[in-house]
Amino acid sequence: MIPSSDKLSDYLHYFFTCYLPHHRDVSPHTLAGYKQTFIHLLRYYQLRAPDQTNPGIDQFPVAFLLDFLSYLEKQLGNTASTRNARLAAVKSFFRMVALLQPRCQDQCRQILALPVKRTPRQRLDFLEKNEVDAIFSSVDTASQDGYRDLCILRTLYNTGARASELCGIRIPDVSLEQKQVLLYGKGRKARTVPLWDSTTAFLRTYLKSERRVPLAPYRDFVFINQRRARLTRSGLYHPCNQYLVAAACKAKTIEHKKIHPVHGWRYTTASHLALAGVDVTVVQEWLGHVSINTTCRYKAVPIETKREALRKFYLFEQSWQETKPEGVDWNLYPDLLAFLESL
To answer: Which of 37, 65, 149, 295 has the CB geometry, 3.0–4.6 Å to 89, for a possible disulfide?
Structure first.
């Protein structure tokens, strides 16, 4: 029921039980992120006003929210990206308040005008082909979960899937006959990604004989953990990090790169597709990006290619300087000021 009071508690209850799940149909990940934002916000409010247990909407002006955002960064150690994500949750809430409570329009308009903080553009490191092979070869397929882990790594490299997308793959999503897999990304957006013959063969063997017998609630999930439940994001991180560290002993270049054990495969897939000459719009669809600007970040150029470009540029410069241009002999006037004064 739409709130009739001005209390924050009433609006938060409506926000999380009706507005987000029914009117917005947000994903569980979005719901969890928004929930964490308002847990931090209420804790901060209790620090500022411990005597007020049920504040009203008007107790959250722009000045207070700016202080809250600074608190997230300085006291809780949140990055600028996390700060912006928290701000997005707050804006979503007050966008709803503006719809439901006309007398709060001015306050909500000011809050919605709060700017996001600029974040530094990080360099995206990716794995070279020999480094990918080194990681694959570091997996002991004779171990209990070794074959599963190799299938995970190969699927990550083939599809460029996010951690949540890979953990959420169900058996009906995989078509071994058509050599493709259906992934559900952010905002429940679905996309189909083709599978290589090698990936298809590994998945077929894994599903036939190497997969743990899951518990009943998880029988449809492809990747199963040691507790016979679906693989979680934290459960995915551990083996990926383990094999990345092991491969660094074989391929020393890995030590000098900042590679996320899971998300680094997504960078690698995108970069290898771009280097292979695949159209950027195809890469965008492959990765499930909403904006093509995000995809363009992955168009990395290897240092060898840059060196070759430098060599060609040097040869061009040398050929251009071979013919001495007519005009002023600058050897006589090395200083531009002296030349002007001589006129």
So the answer is: 37
Q: Which residues, including other chains, have CB under 8 Å from residue 96's CB and lie 6 or more apart?
A: 11, 14, 15, 19
Tell me: do 40 and 180 sit in the same domain: no
Based on the domain organization, do 181 and 274 belong to the same domain?
Answer: yes
- State residue 230 phi and psi, 5-degree precision: -65, 150
Instruction: Identify the pLDDT of residue 291.
Output: 81
Q: What is the 3-state secondary structure (H, E, C) of 97-165?
A: HHHHCHHHHHHHHHHHCCCCCCCCCCCCCCCCHHHHHHHHHCCCCCCCCHHHHHHHHHHHHHHCCCHHH
The predicted structure's pLDDT at residue 54: 87
Do 280 and 156 belong to one domain?
yes
Q: What is the pLDDT of residues 30-56, one digit of tens each?
A: 899 999 999 999 999 999 999 888 899
Domain that holds residue 245: 129-296
Residue 46 half-sphere exposure toward CB, CA atoms < 13 A: 8
Please compute the mean of the pLDDT values over residues 151-166 and round it to a whole number. 95
**Predicted TM-score of the model (pTM):** 0.72
First to last CA, the chain: 86
